[in-house]
Design brief:
about 290 residues, Tumour Suppressor Smad4, 2 domains, 6-stranded antiparallel sheet
Length: about 290
């Protein structure tokens, strides 16, 4: 089997998990591709028939059957945008904090790779959202699109329509349009609901709205949600999955479920609710510790 490893060595401590991946691939004679940025983190004597260095991450992905992403959910988001048109399975090894998508702990690397090599896994399909701007640009998000205030203590006003009907004029610090995958990210911190990943919906969550009765909405993702900004471009930030986007005119964005999805590797003993219990510590009684 051919693997590819994606990691951000500047942000996370990847040496131990990367070494374990390399050792396993060498022992079981599986090919591992990596980009030039990881070359210095690989033992020099490991490079050869099974451990191969390519110039770019995109080249390594093209040659692989399964992608191993080492890091946190930020690394998983980066990987998702690299593979969205290919559908290559992604295994997330968590060296970050919560890690809702990267949910394999480093001590389980060998077990996970063995199960994958024997094709004993399922694919957890996570669809992405698509945004079309009035300027003709198209963007994709696995977690969320974010509209927020910029360099100002004052709130912003956002006019939001769904399927041609006015929902509200939101007066708030911002607005999150989240996919089910992103429901456990910024959306959760802002008081939005948790949504099972396979559900074909999007979540509209205001950030610190002026009106206390303004609450998050869960809407079918097969119809267009339109977000328009009343303020000038200098007052509103528009971003996807943490990446800030340029816009030269007043904000006018249409959002809908995209044709692309990301396939996350799910091992036999894993399920979404187990991840929620572990990451959010549901049912944990600290009195018993």
């Amino acid at each position: 089997m051919k693997f590819c490893v994606i990691a951000n060595p500047e942000k996370y401590s990847i040496q131990n998990p990367l070494s374990r991946v390399v050792k396993w691939c060498l022992q079981h004679k599986n090919t591992l591709y990596a980009s030039q940025q990881l070359k210095h983190y690989l033992p020099a004597d490991s490079l050869g028939d099974y451990i191969k260095i390519l110039n770019e991450e995109s080249e390594a992905i093209q040659k692989s059957d399964v992608i191993i992403a080492i890091g946190g959910d930020g690394t998983m988001l980066h990987t998702a945008h690299l593979v969205k048109k290919r559908g290559t399975p992604v295994l997330g090894i968590n060296t970050g904090k919560l890690g809702f998508m990267a949910n394999i702990q480093p001590e389980k690397i060998e077990d996970a790779l063995w199960l994958i090599s024997k094709k004993k896994y399922k694919l957890d399909k996570r669809y992405m959202l698509k945004a079309n701007t009035s300027e003709g640009r198209i963007y994709y998000a696995l977690n969320e699109f974010l509209f927020s205030k910029k360099d100002s203590s004052s709130m912003i006003t956002l006019e939001v329509h769904y399927d041609g009907q006015l929902i509200n004029h939101y007066w708030a610090d911002g607005l999150i349009v989240s996919s089910p995958t992103g429901s456990t990210a910024y959306n959760l911190s802002a008081g939005g609901p948790i949504v099972q990943p396979s559900t074909p919906v999007l979540v509209v969550t205001p950030i610190n709205p002026h009106t206390l009765t303004t609450r998050p909405l869960v809407l079918p993702s097969d119809k267009i949600l339109t977000v328009k900004g009343s303020e000038t471009t200098e007052k509103i930030l528009f971003s996807y999955d943490g990446i800030i986007l340029p816009h030269n005119s007043k904000l006018d964005v249409e959002i809908i479920q995209s044709e692309f999805s990301v396939n996350l590797v799910q091992l036999p003993d894993q399920n979404y609710f187990e991840t929620l219990r572990n990451k959010l510590m549901w049912g944990l009684d600290k009195r018993k510790q």
